[in-house]
Amino acid sequence: MKNHNLIPKYTYEHIKVEKRPVVDLNHHPIEGLFNSWIILNNPAQFNSYTTDTVKEVILAFREASCDRSVVSIVFTAIGDKAFCTGGNTKEYAEYYAGNPQEYKQYMRLFNDMVTTILTIDKPVINRVNGMRLAGGQEIGMACDFTISADTARFGQAGPKHGSAPDGGSTDFLHLYVGIGRSIESCTLCEHWSAHQAVSLGLINKVVPVLKTKAGKFITNPYVHLTERDEWGNFSFGKLKSGKDLEAAKTMASECTIDFALLDQEVEKLAYSLMMTMPDCLIKTLESLRKKKLEHWQQNCETNRSWLALNMMTEAKAGFKAFNEGTKESREVNFVKLRQALAQGTPWSEDLIKEIMPKDIMPKGN
What we know:
alpha/beta, 17 strands
């Protein structure tokens, strides 16, 4: 049989790729059939993707697509803190900021990664093991299904840190949650809990992963499953605050993270997908994916150009602030920035220095 891979026998260095047997409903492996697990492997930086990571994700998806024994692709990550928090801000701040011609080439790779996920010849399951934010939200939405730990959070970050969510969210988030919720998420950058995400239709299922010392799985204590806001509007899965948050921290600290139920749900979905006619399944997915592709392909190239030029102004400032600031202060001084721009102040190194978080000291100090 012909080998249709672009690079035969490639050795992955920045991600992990595993072929795991498809299992039946009794958890017995099925001979000769596998799921390809494509695993982001940068837990120290919340599984943010570097340039090299993006290239390997593209290759891994293509390899899985060409593998005749693969039934489904499971896109996930190492650890329990994050599936992916987007592009690697350290790389952005230290290499791409101020280099629009370089960032435009990077965005060619990013666009190819999203397009590859949206056009792959296998169903794609996003197994969310933690935060799915910014570009991580976008590559997650490119997948066909999402099964999430109920401790995960979902959302955007662009306008807070010098970018726009033009890697997919402005194209197809509204297809999941509607235009009103999409505008809220993309502009305000407020996070949704996994329970909110499933209630809005963003994801397919949430699974508990916190396990007590007695061996019992409990629902994420950080969320209110039933609540009304100050105006009486019903809210599901809203994140707790104040005294409720402190109590939740205490409860969570007495638990361990166990992904056994999450993996069971992923395997169950993969089994259900196996129990279909393969060509009919893919044709159905291709037809449904067109709704996302329609928006994505209309905008991704012009978005790439704008995002590159933005590396000379707001992105240059925003990524520097995030990279060099502290956990408590990683955003520019928005008031000073707007005041300066209102007076016609041009973008310059002096302006960027002026709006940096107060905790960032000038170089040399």
